[in-house]
Specification:
With 366 residues, the chain is of the alpha/beta class. The protein is built from 14 helices and eight strands. The structure holds 2-acetamido-2-deoxy-beta-D-glucopyranose (3 copies). One 2-acetamido-2-deoxy-beta-D-glucopyranose (NAG) binds next to loops.
């Protein structure tokens, strides 16, 4: 009897112990699970807050700092990521871009970024970044070696064949693309160009290439050598783009007689009335000068000024030049009609901020 009782008690004790252990384990597991969940939630919240703060800081830095082409792209990407693209509203004026020397139509860090930026700022706009040649490499090479008059007629063909441009377009040229698009305006009135925006274009040419953009410094050394050996010889004129807007103020007559491109569009040889008429059809001709430009000599050329003839020290403004006073190109008439716009950006060649672009250029793209 006693043995049976003891056995029963022991069994009961064992059962109670096991139950208690199980209950304790369940409680511990639950506590651990809840803790892990709470920690996970807190971590996620902290990560979200950190990312938001980083995005805000980067945006502020980009807005406040000087924006060359690369940060522009960053800003666009950020904008895209945060707000997405808004499409639909139309009634926009198409925009044609012509890149500068050493660049190409579609470089994601330059023209590609500008195209994207404009597309974000003006939803629905059609932006055509000109490619001179069949590939990006050919496009870049042609910026150095293809006869400029041939490039201009190629572009005129492209524009005339593009159905999206037939109602007219705005044009924005970067560096040498600025004077090339002016030639398009003067030679090819159809489709009509509305606003011509020259970003650092050299409308009176250059007499010096002190610096080269990007990676092309060895090409620049070679170009300088060619220009010094005889910029106005037939061979160099025909095959070197920069020779075609080389303007030697010590040899104005040589320049006038032999410059294949610039002397022609600047009416130095004969007076082509259609150039004058076509240029005056513009709504506005905007010229941007970079106040600390280290690639263009003289910088005045970006506002259509140049060295006074016969020396290479003193400069004259467009308004002081014979071209303006005799109004050979219609620039005086444009000026009097308030259609010549002189803008400046306080930076090196092609450097401007996003805020500067919004305030100064964007109004001409509508
Ligand atoms: C907006 O209109 C222009 C000209 O009519 C056209 O080329 C362009 O494709 C249109 N864009 C959109 C997004 O519909
Ligand atoms: C004037 O320019 C137009 C357009 O490029 C050209 O067709 C014409 O032959 C030029 N006239 C003269 C006199 O050079
Ligand atoms: C420029 O052309 C004019 C007329 O054809 C000629 O009389 C003059 O000698 C030329 N000058 C130079 C430096 O080539």
């Amino acid at each position: 009897m006693i043995i049976i009782t003891i056995t029963i008690i022991i069994i009961i004790i064992i059962i109670i112990t096991i139950t208690i252990i199980i209950i304790i384990m369940i409680i511990i597991t639950t506590i651990i699970t809840i803790t892990i969940t709470i920690i996970t939630i807190i971590t996620i919240i902290i990560i979200i807050i950190t990312i938001t703060i980083i995005i805000i800081i980067i945006t502020i830095i980009i807005i406040k700092s000087k924006v060359n082409i690369q940060p522009l792209l960053l800003a666009s990407c950020l904008f895209f990521a945060v707000f997405g693209s808004v499409r639909g509203a139309n009634g926009t004026v198409p925009l044609v871009l012509w890149h500068g020397m050493g660049d190409s139509c579609c470089n994601p860090l330059s023209m590609g970024a500008v195209k994207k930026m404009v597309e974000i700022k003006i939803p629905g706009i059609y932006v055509l970044s000109l490619e001179i040649g069949k590939t990006v490499v050919e496009d870049t090479e042609n910026g150095f070696f293809m006869n400029v008059n041939d490039q201009v007629s190629l572009v005129c063909d492209t524009l005339a064949r593009d159905p999206q441009l037939k109602e007219g377009y705005n044009a924005m040229g970067f560096s040498q693309g600025g004077q090339f698009l002016r030639a398009v305006a003067q030679r090819c009135p159809s489709p009509p160009m509305r606003n011509l925006i020259s970003i650092g274009g050299q409308h009176q040419g250059v007499y010096g290439l002190p610096n080269c953009p990007g990676q092309s410094s060895h090409i620049c050394d070679w170009i300088r050598k060619m220009l010094n050996s005889g910029a106005y010889t037939g061979l160099v004129q025909n095959h070197l783009v920069q020779a075609q807007y080389w303007h030697d103020p010590l040899n104005e007559e040589l320049y006038r007689n032999h410059s294949l491109f610039l002397a022609d569009i600047n009416q130095e040889r004969v007076l082509n009335e259609s150039y004058k008429k076509n240029l005056q059809a513009l709504r506005s001709f905007v010229m941007v000068k970079f106040l600390r430009d280290s690639m263009v000599e003289p910088i005045d050329s970006e506002w259509f000024g140049f060295y006074k003839p016969g020396q290479a020290k003193e400069t004259e403004t467009l308004q002081e030049s014979v071209l303006y006073k005799e109004d050979r190109l219609g620039l005086q008439a444009l000026d009097k009609a308030g259609k010549l716009v002189f803008l400046s950006s306080d930076g090196d060649h092609l450097q401007f901020t996003d805020a500067w672009f919004n305030a100064n250029i964007l109004p001409y793209l509508h």
